[in-house]
Amino acid sequence: MTDKNREKKLEFVETKYYSAPGGRDFILENGAVLPEFRIAYETYGRLNSRKTNAVLICHALSGDAHAAGFHQGDKKPGWWDEMIGPGKAFDTKKYFVICSNVIGGCKGSSGPNSVNPSTKRPYGLSFPIISMKDMVNAQKELVDFLGVKKLLSVCGGSMGGMQALQWAVSYPEMVVSCIPIATAYKHSAQQIAFDEVGRQAIMADPAWNGGDYYGKEHPSAGLAVARMIGHITYMSNKSMEQKFGRMLKKKELGYEFSTEFEVEGYLRYRGDSFVKRFDANSYLYITKSMDYFDIQEGKKLYHAFKDVKAKFLVIAFSSDWLYPPSQSKEIVKALKMNGIDVTYCGISSDYGHDSFLLEFGEETKLIRHFLENVHRKLEK
User: Fold this and answer.
1) What is the CATH class of 3-186+295-379?
2) Which CATH architecture group holds 192-287?
3) pLDDT digits (tens, 9 = 90+) for 43-77
4) Which band of pLDDT confidence, cut at 50, 70 and 90, is reported for residue 6?
């Protein structure tokens, strides 16, 4: 690696863990108790002396705390490595970037696959129901622990965008700016329907065993199908047509119930690789929290944002049919009705919902200038 390339890369990073002092319980929104909870997190860059440069990155459904850089022995970097690092959109020479695994997840934070301290066995379905607000409140404990009093920005795509919105509403005095990308303030019936089909695929797998499969055969077939369904919604018709069309894996159709089309093989590969890194019960819990998320909480949408003080950059993508631009525009309209400083940017892309993980060039231009302006005003 040349010195020039090295300047653009993060050094090796490691996941750290926050646990409440003394094993203190975490009280959830519904009043349930999560004992001895912990949060897996990573940080990149350094917190400045005034503590004004902290940025929180919130991950999507299948993400985790490892947003950037390499762990020792890894062949691939974190899931948003193109956006986080020296000279990138979230420039780690300027900003202190934090990313944590949500509670309910399966990559180090308390979740269904964690050990229940009272039974000494994995929780399974005895893990309490969690909400988007619970995820954010847990992150708030982590941010407090890190000594951050104000967040320069909270950013996330998809489910990460929901968390970003919740942060701006729950902690208005703490969030200076907010960057929700390819997201919604609540799920539509269609979005709930896709999640439910995925959940049913998991629960129909005999190996799911009512969520009690730890130490036994896992419901890999059901989780793989759930991922295949999800991945179809992440792409656009145009991107699938360009990538696969009707290409065959063999020279001609055999009319067999096997993988004949290239797109079939791709989906199976995606499903099979997903089950190696994700927990089926976490999939159930997290998708349910997304379906229940509604920033309005029974109010008019503009009322939900009445106390918000953050400056907003809202980004959507033209071919995203899972979280279409119309849903982002609803958020923008409600913010404007409250006199909140908001910029909306629609990016033309063929990649569908996955655009937020692929359109690095456009996102970098927008986010870099937005953050620089926000940071400059905060430092005055």
Assistant:
1) alpha beta
2) Orthogonal Bundle (1.10)
3) 999 999 999 999 999 999 999 999 999 999 899 99
4) very low
Burial of residue 116, with CB atoms counted within 10 A of its CB: 0-12 exposed, 13-18 middle, 19 or more buried: middle
pLDDT tens by residue, 131-184:
999 999 999 999 999 999 999 999 999 999 999 999 999 999 999 999 999 999
158 is catalytic: yes
Cα angle 217-115-71, degrees, rounded to a multiple of 5 = 80
Alpha helices in 115-175 (DSSP H): 132-145, 159-170
Query: Which one of 353, 354, 355, 375 is the catalytic residue?
Result: 353
Cβ neighbourhood burial of 255 (10 Å; 0-12, 13-18, 19+):
exposed
Compute the average pLDDT of residues 307-329.
98
Q: Assess whether the region 3-186+295-379 and the region 192-287 belong to the same CATH fold.
A: no
> Is 212 a known active-site residue?
no
Give me the residue spans of the domains in the chain. Answer: 3-186+295-379, 192-287
Report residue 328 as tokens.
């982002």
- Catalytic residue, chosen from 62, 114, 153, 158, is 158
Question: How many whole angstroms separate alpha carbon 315 and alpha carbon 348?
Answer: 11
353 is catalytic: yes
**Of these residues, 320, 350, 354, 355, which one is catalytic?**
320
Q: What is the pTM of this model?
A: 0.95
How does strand 90-91 pair with strand 84-85?
parallel
